[in-house]
Amino acid sequence: MKKILFATSEAVPFIKTGGLADVAGALPKCFDKNYFDIRVILPKYACMKQEWKDKMEYITHFYMDLGYKNCYVGIMQMEYDGIKFYFIDNEYYFSGPKPYDGVPWDLEKFAFFSKAVLSVLPVIGFRPDIIHCHDWQTGLVPVYLHDTFQQNEFFWGIKTIMTIDFVTKDGGSHTEAAAASTPIDPHTGVMQGKPNSAVLNYPDGVVLSDQAGKPLTIEGYADAYSDPVTKIEFSLDKGKTWTTLETPDNDPTCWTYWRLTYTPAEPGAYLLKIRATCTDSEGVEHVASRDTNFLFNVE
Question: Which of 184, 202, 221, 281 is exposed most, by the fewest CB atoms within 10 A?
Answer without folding.
Answer: 281
